[in-house]
Amino acid sequence: MAKDKKLVAAITDMEQDFPQWYTDVVKKAELTDYSSVKGCMIIKPYGYAIWELLQKQLDEKFKETGHENVYMPMFIPESLLQKEKDHVEGFAPEVAWVTHGGENKLQERLCVRPTSETLFCDHYSNIIQSYRDLPKLYNQWCSVVRWEKTTRPFLRTMEFLWQEGHTAHATAEESQEETIRMLNVYADFCRDVLAIPVIKGEKTEKERFAGAKATYTIESLMHDGKALQSGTSHNFGDGFAKAFGIQYTDKDNKLQYVHQTSWGVTTRLIGAIIMVHGDNSGLVLPPRIAPTQVIIVPVQMQKEGVIEKAQEIKEKLSKVARVKIDLTDKSPGWKFSEYEMKGVPIRLEIGPKDIEKNQVVLARRDTSEKIFVSIDELEEKIPALLDDIHNSLLAKATKNRDEKTYVARNLDEFIDTVNNKPGFVKAMWCGDRACEDKIKELTTATSRCIPFEQEEISDTCVCCGKKAKHMVYWGKAY
Amino acid sequence: MAKDKKLVAAITDMEQDFPQWYTDVVKKAELTDYSSVKGCMIIKPYGYAIWELLQKQLDEKFKETGHENVYMPMFIPESLLQKEKDHVEGFAPEVAWVTHGGENKLQERLCVRPTSETLFCDHYSNIIQSYRDLPKLYNQWCSVVRWEKTTRPFLRTMEFLWQEGHTAHATAEESQEETIRMLNVYADFCRDVLAIPVIKGEKTEKERFAGAKATYTIESLMHDGKALQSGTSHNFGDGFAKAFGIQYTDKDNKLQYVHQTSWGVTTRLIGAIIMVHGDNSGLVLPPRIAPTQVIIVPVQMQKEGVIEKAQEIKEKLSKVARVKIDLTDKSPGWKFSEYEMKGVPIRLEIGPKDIEKNQVVLARRDTSEKIFVSIDELEEKIPALLDDIHNSLLAKATKNRDEKTYVARNLDEFIDTVNNKPGFVKAMWCGDRACEDKIKELTTATSRCIPFEQEEISDTCVCCGKKAKHMVYWGKAY
What we know:
The structure is a homodimer.
Chain A: H1 2-8, H2 18-28, E1 32-34, E2 41-43, H3 45-64, E3 68-69, E4 75-77, H4 78-81, H5 85-91, E5 96-101, E6 104-112, H6 117-127, E7 136-145, E8 159-169, H7 172-192, E9 199-202, E10 214-221, E11 227-237, H8 239-244, E12 247-249, E13 255-257, E14 259-266, H9 268-277, E15 294-298, H10 306-317, E16 323-325, H11 332-341, E17 346-350, H12 352-356, E18 359-364, E19 370-374, H13 378-403, E20 405-407, H14 411-420, E21 424-429, H15 433-443, E22 446-451, E23 470-475
Parallel strand pairs in A: 3-7, 15-16, 15-17, 20-21
Antiparallel strand pairs in A: 1-2, 4-6, 5-6, 7-8, 8-14, 9-10, 9-22, 10-11, 11-14, 12-13, 17-18, 18-19, 21-23, 22-23
Helix pairs in contact in A: 1-11, 3-7
């Protein structure tokens, strides 16, 4: 009972202290726990079940688009990491180094992979010889390590789970197509599975991935108005190919360098789900990644026939949804709070009176709305309701994002907006790194992306007043 | 074409040089590749697809038996590894040590997990308080690292993929039940999915897992008569619980230690598949883990209607099996060899003459037998044939194992058998470590297990002649 009490004890109000609200939800919805290793998290069964559903659905999309999974070693020899100059400069400062194997000092240090471009390139240089070997469309699900100083569950941890796609193509056009294809896979996945709307665009040079020719990103907006980079897709051109000597013989028997891409999303997406959809009762899970979509809570369980009927309904519904039944001796009230905290999309209540009327009560987690539904119609109504919840969550998140997206035409407006109205700021930019740096220094906001959907807000840079090149989304970010 | 030629070039004869045959198959069936990291392998798409099918089906069994997946950090602080005395002695000599994070030397070394008992115990000590919290039935899919000197793809590599189950129970009876339950899950999985028969039994004290009270094993026999430990399940009793202080309050409000288990199988199972079922044409995959179960090879593709008919069949069969079609411009002969090398269970040939007769040719990979089947019956015949192939493979492997299982009644017989007849040797043992050591010294054979199914071969130890306690399976092992 002590455990239940903790669950229903109020969590911090999200409007009062959003970071503390986040920490409370992660803890009380039993998503993660702290570990003895500073900066590393334990992903608990409920959190991991979300990751498994996310992984399964994303993996299907990768396979539909022709990708194959592989597994590369978790270690990278120091000399291999150093082969591409920008890449090593970007990552070397934040890697974990293995120096000893058993009792012996290693001749060469190995880093624990922070990302695996170098390993894939090394492998590609061995297996690609002819145009017939192209494209190579590989993906890997694994964990990577980056030595972060400040960490937060899901958002920034020293070790995190992710997937990293690595592809090699015959031409620059094909690698560019692939880069955008996978960005779209991510964007569609966020919208259709996670109910999260994203802005698609290109990162500025400053924010580009170490070694990339172009980095594209999907940016989402959290409930508190802070941005979250939710997935990236990089076009490497032939930079890595030249560093690693990845060449193929084309149809005219001439040696050519391949063109490469990489793209990834991480367990960070779970952080996005929490911060986009959650409320003051806890987690709100979009139905398609909810480990339990319907929780059946029998009321007056001791009455004859209640448990039997509830179980009968569970059996029937298991064909159309992920259903669980709670037959523990906790009170219905405790159970209601518990599954609200865990974000279960639909609660199905059934008691003796309902059984008399051949009906149940369905309570939506997202709106708290309750409806009575005939038992005979459940198999049809539940999937429709889950879809409706998905659509409502997406609409609500889109509304929140749009309401928190502002326009700034000059620096004063920009500073005022960033300081007083948390959200995205759309503003023109000259393309100069100096203006980007100045804006960050003045406001801590960063350029999130140059969106594909450009708008002409004005023709001058919001910072320096010179001729503008792009409209940029700016914002404070996680 | 150069690549095709390599594929059909003869591999080493398995009866002449089994280790080289193994290496050839792994390479030519495109299962793994070498990497820049000594002792670590790259698992290529075809090898990884086998692992995914294996993982999926095993994971379902874990979930059916009530287990939940979690994710623990990949690092273990040195002080945590040292908490259980036997365990640290067993593993410390073979772990990789991280000493630096970025530019900084760590205050405490971290080892890359060789296994995660210590992390699970540390977590359990935090989350288990009451009998209501028990049992905890956790599992994790991840990679682990052990600093091995000599490595072979799948069989022994520095890093390998595996699952590790870690459970905590209220009583010794429950932990013993769980240990045996999971051993049975492994044994059934090997038989029903991998078509590999196994001997179930207990390891002797000498071969026990570091920190376990009892270790159980499934042992399989490879084509060459060497044994392979294919999965283990350990009962820890309350040893780890005492070292880590994992206590719960029972129903009488008394503090008790939990009783724990752990159990695991690895990518080594892919090595077992290769060495149990493979032949001189390459890999032979049991249908239930074959990424492609049916490969359609159209013959005389240029003839009108052949490709269309082949594709029509592919569409239809995709509902009942994992089917691929090869429309490349390689000759049918090349393709036949290629898919034989890759162990695809059924080859479906279709040409103009077959189409006239409304039939196809089905060639079994395991027996090379060819049958003509009406196109109308394919959807029914293919699943039945796949089952038949599974059963044949299992029968053949069982026959091979039984024929290579010998009995020895005295030391001379034992030595003679081990030296001249590769296989299992069943022999009585007094239970004394000295005899086990002596047998290993004389023959390099080790005790594989004390099988659950005991036989009374004689009443004296095969080594010392004293009173025998157990019948033991012995053998040289991978």
